[in-house]
Amino acid sequence: MFIDFMQLTILFGLGILGTNVLLAILQKGKKKPIMILTIGELLILAGIIYVVLPSKTLSSILWINLIGVLMASMLLWLLGYIQSGQLGTEIKNAKQKKVVNPPKKSMTLAPQLFWLAIVAALLLGGISGITRIVSTVSIYATIPAKTEEQAETLTSTKETPIAIAPDTAKRKMLQKFSVIPNSNMFTLDGITAQTINGEYVYVATLEYNGFWKWFKLKEIPGYFQISATDINAQPEFVNKPLHYTPSAYFNEDAGRKIYAAFPGYGALGTINLEIDEAGNPFYVQTLYKEYGVTGLMHFDHFKTAVLNAETGEVNLYDSEKAPSFIDAPITSAAANRLNEYYGRYSQGWWNQFIFGAKKDVKIPTENGIYASGQITPMLNKDSELMYFTDFTSDDSNQDSALGYSLINARTGQLTYYRDTDVGIMDSDGAISIASKIYPEKKWKAEMPVLYNIDGVQTWIVSLMDSKGIFKKYVYINAVDNDIVIDADTAQTALDAYRIELATSGSNNQNSDPANMAEKQGTVQRVQLLTGTSQTVISFLLEDDPIIYSVNINNSPYAQFLQVGDQVTFQANVTADMTAASIESLTIEGVPDNQ
User: I want to staple 371 with a disulfide (CB 3.0 to 4.6 A). Which of 304, 336, 428, 479 is the partner?
Assistant: First the structure.
């Protein structure tokens, strides 16, 4: 690692070396002060590089070397001024209030180099800015994006787990903090969502509570793990030592370790902790190559650095080819950058401003739990980690969502969901409604996520008390905001919500037909549910625990259903469901009841 940083110091110090060597050659007289000054400048630069960790991209190299030329020439200018005795003379004349003419010629080329570096910096800034503008279309074209109308379908909370807000997990972990040896020497860091051995969990790292705590211990004893879906789960502290962590110092800093291995890449966001199937900890960071001198990236070429937190071994992968236990090779910061670019630049650079009309400009909301509130993790039915973000207009008077995106945390594939026929409420509106269900309790609504439930786009929100303890799930119809259901568990709320949708006249006409299966059986119980404008028939089949509901507006002959009837219908059901809404049914012996 020492040799790596020495090489980086030389690379970023070429401006300093070139300036000082050139002026030393041209200067008459003693050169020793310049040599000493050069060594001092390089030592300071080495310290700055070690702390800041600038990426070895073209723009970083150019800018840091230009700054080096500016600083070196300015110091040599001052050094020549002092060596000539002119500074002492001017001080003496100032004290005696004498007026003397300034020298006609500069003593060295340092002033000329200084101003030349200023001009070069202005040119580089102009070229970088212009390149960013003209490359907008080509950079946007690298976004692996597609558009869908149908939202992510939620058929059961077993098939698609609904996570509680991580504040609850963090609260429980803090309550268990005393199980950690020397717990006062650590602090609880960020929480990440992932799957371990098929279970959706939250994992939280410990970090040193300052330099002296690290100096004394040199090792973190382990990490916390808790179910992300079981509201009654308690956190487990896993004893797996972490030698390399983001809060360690010098060569044990996880970020510095990754940087030293791959300094030629730019890094995005913070480092995430991922756990393999054996419980071993790894730190993951998303890296990228710069496009020209713009500081931008190609969104289809992310890299993933993986650091073994115990051994310090670092490996680099194409994000899609990262080890299978890593759920998020592309971290939330990269997904956030992708969302921002996708929402802002679909019509080019100029369009984002008011004079460009802002056609198709979409702004990510800030109601998530990652990336400063713009990203929420979730699992899809294939157990892949996705990043959810809904988009709204920059017009503060509009409350509707323009759509939402799901980004695959492994492939970077962005799927934008947009139903052009139905306007839906954005996450700000969902949070506002959920927060007002129990106003006297002053509960806070968090982590809104949008799903398609029986063809209806629906917000699912977690309600938390003032201490961050989970209280209820809230399901809110994103189209008809009057349909709101809350319950203690996600599945209970889903079942009640389905019945409410059926009673209110909603149907599953937007459900994917590929997920529908034919059901048939003998009716065991029948219940008539009459609302203000809708009538719903709910029934049970023999040897089937699911409550099926059908609106007579969709299936008029359903009102003649009786116990003992043989029925056939299409339904989307899973093993753990207790209620399902269907669009129509066929009753044996009742003519023309399709």
Answer: 336
Cα–Cα distance for residue pair 37/71, rounded to 1 Å: 11
Neighbours of 489 (CB within 10 A): 16
The angle subtended at Cα 574 by Cα 569 and Cα 580, nearest 5°, is 50
Q: In terms of Cα–Cα distance, which of 142, 406, 146, 410 is closest to 294?
A: 142
Alpha-carbon separation of residue 237 from 9, 247, 273, 279 (angstroms):
41, 19, 15, 11
- Give yes or no for a contact between 67 and 42, defined as CB atoms under 8 angstroms apart: no
With a CB cutoff of 8 Å and minimum separation 6, the contacts of 3 are none
Q: Of all residues in the chain, what percent carry a pLDDT higher than 90?
A: 29
Report how far residue 149's alpha carbon sits from residue 403's, in angstroms, rounded to the nearest whole number. 9
Inter-residue contact 69 to 19 (CB < 8 Å):
yes
Query: Which residues 6+ apart lie within 8 Å of 477 measured at CB?
Result: 456, 457, 458, 483, 484, 501, 506
With beta carbons less than 8 A apart as the criterion, state whether 454 and 511 touch: yes
State the pLDDT confidence band at 368, using cuts at 50, 70 and 90. Answer: confident
Write the DSSP symbol of residue 372. G
65-79, 205-219, 344-358, 359-373: lowest mean pLDDT where? 344-358
- 3-class DSSP state of 66: helix
Six-digit token string for 403 = 């759509």
Which segments of 488-530 are extended strands (E)? Answer: 517-530
Annotate 396-423 with three-state secondary structure.
Answer: CCCCEEEEEEEEECCCCCEEEECCCCCC
Pairing between β-strand 296-297 and β-strand 266-275 as defined by DSSP bridges: unpaired
Asked whether the predicted pLDDT for residue 133 surpasses 90, the reply is: no
pLDDT-based confidence at residue 579 (cuts at 50, 70, 90): confident
Tokens of 406: 């799901």
3-class DSSP string for 164-214? CCHHHHHHHHHHCHHHCCCHHHEEEEEEEEEEECCEEEEEEEEEECCHHHH
Distances (CA, A) of 8 to 11, 59, 121, 179, 267: 5, 15, 21, 43, 16
- For residue 507, the model assigns a pLDDT of 46
How many helical (H) and strand (E) elements, i.e. helices and strands, does the chain have? 13, 27
- Half-sphere exposure (Cβ direction) of 64: Cα atoms closer than 13 Å: 25
Instruction: Report the alpha-carbon distance of residue 234 to residue 227 in Å, rounded.
Output: 8
Place of tokens 């910096």: 121
The residue length of the chain stands at 594
The candidate with the shortest Cα–Cα distance to 194, out of 284, 328, 304, is: 328
Residue 102 pairs with which residues in a beta bridge? none
Name the H helices within 13-162.
Answer: 14-26, 32-52, 58-83, 86-95, 110-134, 136-140
